Amino acid sequence: MPMVSNTSDRLSVLENFGSDPGSLSANTYVPKKFPKNGPLVVVLHGNTQSPESYDIGSGWSTLADECGMALLFPGQRLTNNLIGSFNWFEAGDSQRGCGEPLSIRQMIKQVVDDHAVDPSRVFITGMSSGGAMTSVMLATYPEVFAGGAIIAGLPYGTANNMMEAAICMNGYSSPSDSKLDALVRGASKFTGPWPTISVWHGDSDTTVDSSNAGSIVRQWQKIHKVEGPPTRVETVNSFPRKIWCDADGRVVIEEYIIEAMGHGTPISAEGDEGLGEAGEYMLEVGISSTRHIADFWGLTRSGAANRAEPKTAA
């Protein structure tokens, strides 16, 4: 059992979880009534944020108490990146078996083992660089995850250095659909079933251009065999939700483009179902991405019908 110490009123520090080649920190939140074979959600913060600040803003630990899920918050160290960004654009930190992806994989294994998590119900989400690293994890370790949610992020494999990252963030030089598909397929030897994908982006984002949301969707469409226009479009909290369903009618990709929202995580802190707290990059827009992502994954009562098909973790 690894050493665990308190880091705040909500999160605890997970120590000695593996070789940690990416030199990351790890924080956890496990509700007192966490059930055996319960789910795990991995939550990746954005630039200039910490696990604690992202949890406060997004409300994940509040929802964890409500729904009975364990949480893992990988954290970047300033010694690795001066603005606290995950290094999703570096070759050594964007491939299976090395760097930051392997560190996160090691953390996941430790939490799954320590808390009897159902390995077929592991999910991952992140915002900004955390969103881009979510793309990395879904591509390099697809067998680990039942679903992923990418907020204000970028598709996998489109940048190999900081200059290319800046070009992609500005919405330029997006690869062809076939190249996007090949990048994911080439990141591991996995052949499916693939994790479901949720994409969130503000249409007024001047940090990571919203065209990246479309690139993420296209990166996963052929993999899920849902090429072309969405199966349907519905309205959720006054925002459009595009849905792509597979041949069995299961929703495998969803996309929310939030009108007039800049760079950040969409939250709804008010009301009986409010979650989180508005702040820098935590944007009060009247829709909780946290709650709706958990719905999409079947982790809430209202979202149970959407639960992803079980898969076996490596």
From TrEMBL:
InterPro entries listed in its UniProt record: AB_hydrolase_fold, Esterase_phb, Plant_Biomass_Hydrol_Est
Keywords: Hydrolase, Signal
Family annotation (Pfam families): Esterase_PHB
Keyword Hydrolase in annotation: yes
GO MF, one example: hydrolase activity
Keyword Hydrolase: yes
Record-level GO cellular component terms: extracellular region
Protein name: Esterase, PHB depolymerase family
Organism: Sulfitobacter brevis
